[in-house]
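In line with agreed milestones, the collection of sequences with tokenised folds has grown. One record among many is set out beneath this paragraph:
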Amino acid sequence: MAKEGDYFDEKLADFFDDLDDLDNLPLLDTIASITDRYCDFQYLDEGGIKIIHRCRDLKTGREVAMASLKECAKDPQKELFFKEARLTAALQHPNIIPLHDLGLKGEQAWFTMKLISGASLEQVLQDLKDGRSQQLNTLSERLDVFIKVCDAMAYAHSRGVLHLDIKPDNIQISNYGDVLLCDWGLAKVMASVCDEELLECYTFNPKELDLTIDGLVKGTPGYMAPEQTRLVKAKKGIATDTFSLGCVLYKILTLEKPFKGADLMAIMNNTVNGRFPKPSVLNPDIPLSLEAVCLKALAPDPQDRYASVIDLQKEILDYRQGFATNAENATLLKLTRLWYNRHRTLSIAGIIILLISFSTAFFAINSLKLEKINALQMAEKLQLEKLNALESSARLKLEADKLQLENEFHKKFNKGAAPRFLQRAQIAFESYNFDDAVNFCDSAVELDPSLSDAWALKGLLHIIHEQFGAALNALNKCKKKNALKQLAKDFYQIKNDDSQRLSLSHYLKLFQRSLTTGQVKLSGGLIHHKAYSEMPLDQRIEFCKGMIEIHNEKSLRRFRGGKTINFSYDPKIKKLDLSGNPWMQSALIVQNFPAYAADFSYTGIKNFICFRKQPLRSLNVSGTPIIELHTLENHNLIALNISHTSIGNLRKLKDFTLLKTLNISHSAVRSSAILKDLNGLETLTIHQGQLTESDLKRLNPATKVLIHKN
């Protein structure tokens, strides 16, 4: 029995040894067989269009955070989402959150990043204020966090990247002391100093994306700089991030944010005017040196703030090391006290020596000689301090010269990129992204001020934005002859304040002038800009009437019938009626009109472009010259009437899954090939003999067919 037991134990041990040997083998097959890399999703947080999950990466075996866009996200939002990811991936710094992977799963965009086990600085400070936690309870610990954030931003600025949304919510602190600056969704690339690889991330947020507060500002009230509020005219730059860092420093010192108010406008007005309580008012124990640094960083004028994040960080480090900060303009007495604190042992030794010297002098006869010796010692000491100061000044000058040389190198290196920015500006203009086009033009002329085509396009864009002063400035720098210059001069006499808008009558005159002078790009830009601008409904209606009459002036003159335009809108049912205007060949101005129903029957329109961005449910284009459906983009249509048109191909309607009522009578449609696939169609109207019996049998049995006999 003992031998059998020994044999069994030996076999059992061999079995487990074999398992140990096999334990390492399946990993190759496991990794190779992984199709869905991420699993075990757990909800963490979400924002406007973004949602964050904790999940497991099966390939690496680690837990990561996955940011993904919600299903409602549009393609432009996905584009910005990926640009944020690529920019974050390009910034490799210990205090910037690292990005691991990105991709598309079906139509959903996502990227993964480091999972931080901790809390935001906002939450930590709030818990400290409420007494729920003692984390970062000392000012020294909080300043450690601030210095690391400054490290991250100094690095980002050296790469030519602005964050533009620095706030405690975007600063994550792990349970093990890691400090990471997150959320680069509003970041902007400074084209003149950025690396070549970051140029692909250079873009701007289109107006239609929900990335702004009330469509006005980008950023977080209470932490944004005055130039981000749009209430003042100043270019966003390094000083903008410096201001936000000043707000974070204020929160670190007082546990309160600096700018508050009853509503958004009050907060922005307080920001612009620099109205906030000094840190020492909220906490008398705050060192005056740090308060002075904070106040300088929060100066309303960018020129009065720190020129760089490094300068701001150096002030904090000087305070930590016992030196006076430049911001406080310290007195000689304070400088002496700080010197004493830094060299306490040496000072005490010096005092003892002086006491001994004075004692010796008291008992010595030659006191004058001792005084001369002491004077020489003091002179030597002052000379030494002067030499140290000169050495420090020379070092700072050397660093400044080096920085200037680097900036000049970057500008010279990136001058060749100016035509690329002009090309992007032209593409943005052609797709009616006028804000992007202006910013791309700004970057092009900043890199190469001699680029005439960029100045010309910039002048055109400013006229479209009704900014005639800026347009004149740009066109004057364009070396080529430009017909728009006289137009800009004429309308500058009418309105010389670029922050104001033209009246309706003057805008219509501008539009008419663009047509009579053959400025096609200007007239098209004016239509699109006004159509997609926010304005009251009654004002929009008047604009539409005026623009339609001017745009169709030639055809209206040739028309022999009535000259009065039929234009009505019922706000209760949101129906727009322009039917019975056969002279109306263009109605592009009604794009983005808030209509659920539109009747454009028996007009002269030739396509569906004028209905873009309208939330239409019902559309009637009966009796129009339209011959195709490929420009129809209103996918929420429930009812469509294309009778008495030359439309023959219905393939486009396969994408209109909500369509229930369709009238194709007396049209060019002669086949049920597409009609049989419209499963949701409830009513179809045709004329006698339009479809064969076999065609009708192929239709969905649930579709009711109405036949016009004449």
